[in-house]
Amino acid sequence: MVGRGPDGLAPNGRTYTRRLAMHYIGMDVHSKVTMICILDEAGKLLKEQVVGGPLTEVVAAARRWPRPFKVCYEASCGYGWLHDQLKGLAAQVVVAHPGKVRMIFSAKRKTDRIDARKLATLLFLEQVPVVHVPSAARRQWRALIEYRHRLVARRTAVKNMIRALLRSQGLKAPRSLWSGKGRAWLLGQEMAEWDALRREMLLEEVDELGRRIDRLEQQLDRQASAEPGVSLLRTIPGVGPRTAEAVVAYVDDPDRFGRNKSIGCYFGLVPREDTSVKRRLGHITHEGPPTVRRLVVEACWMAVRRDAGLKAYFERIRGDKKDRKKIALVATAHHLLRAMLAMLRTGEVWRAAA
Predict the structure, then answer these.
(1) CA 70, CA 126: separation in Å to the nearest integer?
(2) Partner of 242 at 20 to 30 A CA spacing, among 47, 65, 228, 284?
(3) At 48, which CATH number?
(4) Residue that finishes a domain, picked among 226, 251, 273
(5) Domain assignment of residue 189, given as a range
(6) Alpha carbons 135 and 263: distance in angstroms, whole number
């Protein structure tokens, strides 16, 4: 901004540039109300504000905030849309990791006002634990993957309800219950009127879920065909299209990971560690997207059978102890994820062990 004196010039006869003071804004965002805290350039409280209504009201309020400003809020439902809307208004939009914020800045009292002030203070101190915000197209792809996963889980639950119905009738279902022959056997069993009605409605639900899953997979296949990383990861034995697309969608930018081992932390496949007295390892952290973690672990069951290198890694971790089978499988999944990240970085296909 160029400031001028009464004669339009600075005292030395030249125009001068005055830098506008930066404002630091923390937001505690909820579905119905958002608490806003605004700090000045010195980190002192300038204003507190409560905005009621959906996120569109928050964006409308942001247009009236003092410029320039930086804004920070925790990742939650709708964080990506809000980031896209504020990006054109703010000098910087920072999305914080909720769990890490609580570790950095703990307080005995927890209110919306305190949380907003906490985020604004961390932003002023440049100590916000930042999360990666993917593009809108990437977020839609992830949402479609998660939706398919929920439909598959629902179909499995309905199939289990049918098996439970058969057990309640003293019937043993054939192993190929969902084949044409198995369904004919199921419909041919005599049941009471209400049980028969439940059987038919459950079968209808299985068929409807199957059609919806097929429709989703067609769209996912079209998206995967436009992603070179998906075909690259499918060169790994045992890795199918659903696992490959989930890893590529959630990794997004391979270069955002400082090293290959970081991907294990992101997907929650590293053990909890306590080294205050001596090194103790616990269960895995289970952080990050559970869908990807589950798909990669499932893919490892096939990969250790088809690839000699992965099988050797699995056997080395398991040793001679049968009770370490699950531990070895999770460790192999972690190892496989590191290899996937390296492949996405370099563009190299999977190289089987000699």
Answers:
(1) 11
(2) 284
(3) 3.30.420.40
(4) 226
(5) 136-226
(6) 20
Q: Is residue 299 part of a domain?
A: yes
Q: Is 134 left (phi over 0), alpha (psi -120 to 50) or beta?
A: beta
Give me 18's structure tokens.
């005055």
Tell me, what's the pLDDT at 14? 57
**Residue 31: both structure tokens together:** 């579905």
pLDDT per 10-residue tile (average), the chain, 354 residues:
44 55 96 95 95 95 95 95 96 94 78 94 95 96 97 97 95 92 94 95 97 97 96 96 97 92 92 75 88 96 94 92 90 96 95 74
Q: How far apart are CA 129 and CA 137, in angstroms?
A: 24
pLDDT for the residue 167: 95
Contacts of 145 (CB under 8 A, 6+ apart): 220, 242, 245, 246, 249, 291
Cα 247 to Cα 210: distance, rounded to the nearest angstrom: 24
Q: In residues, how long is the chain? A: 354
Residue whose C-alpha is closest to residue 98's, from 67, 70, 77: 77
339, 296 Cβ separation under 8 angstroms: no
Residues 31, 113, single domain; the answer is: yes
CB distance 162 to 199 below 8 Å: yes
For residues 94 and 282, what is the distance between their CA atoms, to the nearest angstrom?
A: 32
- Enumerate the H helices of the chain as residue ranges: 55-62, 79-87, 98-104, 112-125, 136-168, 180-187, 193-225, 228-233, 241-251, 262-266, 290-306, 308-318, 325-346
Q: What is the distance between the alpha carbons of residues 325 and 3, in angstroms, rounded to a whole number?
A: 72
Burial classification of residue 180, based on how many CB atoms lie within 10 Å of its CB (0-12 exposed, 13-18 middle, 19 or more buried) = exposed
Interatomic CA distance for residues 15 and 2, integer angstroms: 7
- In the listed set 97, 125, 153, which residue is the last one of a domain according to the structure? 125
Do 291 and 146 contact (CB within 8 A), yes or no? yes
Tokens of 140: 């839609």
Taking the mean position of all CA atoms in its chain, how far away is CA 17?
44
Evaluate whether residue 130 is within a structural domain.
no
The answer to whether 76 touches 28, Cβ cutoff 8 Å, is: no
